[in-house]
Structures are given as C-alpha cells and as structure tokens.
Write a structure and sequence with these properties.
It is built from ten helices and six strands; from the N terminus they run H-E-E-H-H-E-H-E-E-E-H-H-H-H-H-H. It has 225 residues and is an alpha+beta fold. It folds into two domains: 147 residues, no CATH class; 73 residues, no CATH class. Strand 1 and strand 2 form a beta hairpin.
Length: 225
C-alpha cells in the first residue's frame, strides 16, 4: 500500500471508515470533472462507523438534517478528497456512479438474492459512504473478484422464505409490497424494530450484524422512499 493510501486510511479510521477497495480503470474515465485512473471506495464493515456518526448526529446543529448519514459522510470525505488532490463522489448523488460494479471489481463480493452485495466474511453487513476519484493510480492491495456467487453455495436460502411478504421470491424486488408491509402494525413490530427479516436470516457474517439503533435507523430511512 502506498503512503497516500495509508494516510487516507488512517484519517478515515478516526471516523470508523476505511478504504474498502480501489477500482483501477483500464482507460481514463471522466468522473466529476476529473480524468480518473482509479476510484477509492470508502465505507464501513459492520457497525464500526456507528458511534462516530451518532456522536455527530446528536449535536444540536445536525438534528434537522434530512439525510444525516449522507451529510456526515460528505463532511468527512469531501475535505479529505481535496486534501489529497482527488474529487469526492457519493452513491446518493446524481449522476449515480456505478458503486456496486466498482465494489464487485475491487472486493471479494457478489450480488445477493436480496439486492445487497454480500461477502462470505461479513455478509451484507457493510456499506459504502462515498468514493474519491484520482487522476493517478492509487497503490492499494485489492483482491481480485473471481466471479463469485456466494448465494449459489447457500443450500437453504433462508432469506427468501424469511420475508413476510415474499418480496424477494421472484426475479425482481417487490418494492411496493415491502413498503406497504413496513407501514403496518405487523411491519412496525418486526422488520422496523429488528431489521429486515430476510437480511437477518442470512447465515453469512452474523458477527458483524448491526446493533438495534443502527438497524432501526436504516429501516426508517428506507421506509421514507
């Protein structure tokens, strides 16, 4: 790992974040006004970022943020990108860069049956908060992804049967059925309280599972849409 990558990773660690992987482009790729040769994906595994985010969120001047986790992420990543001559981009902002594809090409992940990226180590309990595009290649030890399909090796596939409305039973996610259920008393007492039942049923990465406050935060954010 280069000194640049080490410095960025060290600064991110103070916020419970890390460089998750680096996507090296075969050709120069325009990203947010930069002729990028790579993007460093920034995120977290498990709940390692949660305490730092909560400490920020409980401050009075942050209480009215419409999307507090996005705002917190930008307060960290944008200055860091400028400091190291890169440009920050975020999965929540247009033009919606292909974060999932970048992740699949820089980490040992695969697409899961419940529309989240999955790892054999930490399951679906992880996230990406942004990325920094650089005009120079960033030396970072990425793990080549050999076309994994982690869910294919799962015999019982309990995630599919655990969803109370069968939202993942077909080729597409039945978004409206999921949203409708979350607004019922039953949904409030189950998935809204304990987290997505399908996600909880996955046998991978259970030791990285989000704690209750983090789980509730993400479910409330999802239900808004």
């Amino acid at each position: 790992m280069s000194d640049l990558a080490k410095n960025i990773d060290r600064e991110l660690s103070a916020f419970g974040l890390r460089i998750r992987g680096v996507k090296i482009f075969e050709e120069v790729t325009p990203i947010a006004g930069v002729d990028a040769k790579c993007v460093a994906l920034i995120g977290h595994i498990g709940g390692e970022n949660w305490d730092q985010f909560q400490n920020w969120w409980t401050q009075d001047d942050h209480q009215d943020q419409e999307h507090p986790l996005d705002a917190w992420s930008k307060e960290i990543i944008i200055p860091l990108a400028k400091k190291y001559d890169g440009v920050a981009v975020f999965p929540s902002d247009e033009p919606y860069y292909p974060f999932q594809n970048w992740a699949l090409e820089s980490e040992l992940l695969s697409k899961s049956l419940i529309n989240l990226l999955i790892s054999e180590e930490f399951g679906t309990w992880h996230g990406y908060r942004g990325a920094i595009a650089f005009e120079e290649k960033l030396d970072f030890a990425c793990r080549e992804n050999p076309a994994l399909d982690i869910c294919e090796t799962c015999v019982d596939k309990p995630c599919l049967s655990a969803c109370p409305v069968g939202a993942f039973s077909g080729d597409a996610f039945l978004y409206s059925e999921c949203q409708s259920y979350l607004k019922t008393k039953e949904g409030e007492a189950s998935c809204m309280m304990d987290g997505c039942s399908a996600r909880n049923a996955c046998p991978y990465g259970v030791e990285y599972k989000y704690k209750s406050p983090q789980m509730k935060f993400h479910m409330r954010a999802f239900r808004k849409f």
